[in-house]
Design goal:
about 260 residues, alpha/beta, eight-stranded parallel beta barrel, globular
């Protein structure tokens, strides 16, 4: 019988490729949503533990649902949660509010085992198959396969985008447009010209290093625009998609529906 390893390490290789990757943020604490996104055809799902309400046990079950249904799971979490999220089997993590190369290097240290980083070893966790895939096999697989995605969400991060992306061990850099707009004084208007200029500047700087650049793309038109600036890793938002569909059903197909990210 072929045993599927609990740790899904496909994303790191895809981030080094040249194809567009399409996924979705979900802050909903539901393994069923993970499966639905997989069956809808998304390549990855970002389990949002920064803004979502899933506890760690639910997050682990969402990772199981992703592995079973075939979608690649990414966990967005705060740095203090990295150790437990990785031990439960996250093959990719996306960390918010990275503004300097020093912060990025610190994250690499937290994500990688020695001799690359300083992550503490635990081979009894789900990531190591509860000991079935422990030892150097697990260490090597984790150090070589876990994807680290840094999020730029401040003007300082935009200025340091090239330096952040150049840090060895950072696999991709994602520009968070909503927080960036707020940080620049434009509230949630991230389509304003100054914010769009900052997004373009960051995406081009990231792409210039050869690393994968990403951002939120709510429409095909936005995705195409950001792609011309160097982005390849695109995320929509599950709650917005669901709410749009529900409002359309409730309004019997009337036009004029608007959703805020």
């Amino acid at each position: 019988m072929e045993i599927r390893h609990p740790l899904d390490t496909r994303l790191s290789g895809l981030l080094r490729g040249d194809s567009r990757l399409k996924g979705v943020f979900s802050g909903l604490p539901s393994p069923a949503i993970v499966e639905m996104c997989a069956y809808a055809g998304f390549e990855f799902i970002i389990i949002d533990n920064e803004h979502g309400c899933a506890d760690l046990e639910t997050t682990e079950n969402m990772l199981r649902a992703a592995r079973a249904s075939g979608i690649i799971p990414v966990v967005r979490c705060l740095p203090q949660d990295l150790s437990r999220v990785l031990d439960m089997g996250a093959g990719a993590v996306q960390i918010p509010m990275v503004s300097t190369a020093m912060q990025a290097r610190e994250l690499v240290e937290q994500v990688r085992y020695p001799r690359v980083g300083r992550r503490g070893s635990a081979f009894s966790s789900r990531a190591a198959g509860y000991g079935a895939f422990g030892g150097m096999e697990h260490t090597t697989r984790s150090n070589g396969g876990i994807a680290l995605i840094a999020m730029i969400e401040t003007p300082e991060g935009v200025e340091n985008a090239q330096a952040i992306a150049s840090v060895e061990g950072v696999d991709a850099v994602f520009v968070g447009p909503n927080d960036l707009a707020h940080a620049m004084g434009y509230d949630n208007n991230w389509t304003s010209q100054p914010v769009e200029a900052a997004i373009e500047k960051a995406l081009r700087a990231i792409a210039s290093t050869g690393k994968c650049a990403g951002t939120v793309a709510l429409t095909p038109e936005a995705e195409d625009k950001y792609a011309t600036w160097g982005a390849r890793y695109f995320a929509n938002v599950a709650t917005s998609i669901i709410t749009q569909a529900l409002r359309k059903a409730a309004s019997r197909g009337q036009d004029g529906i608007s959703i805020q990210y």
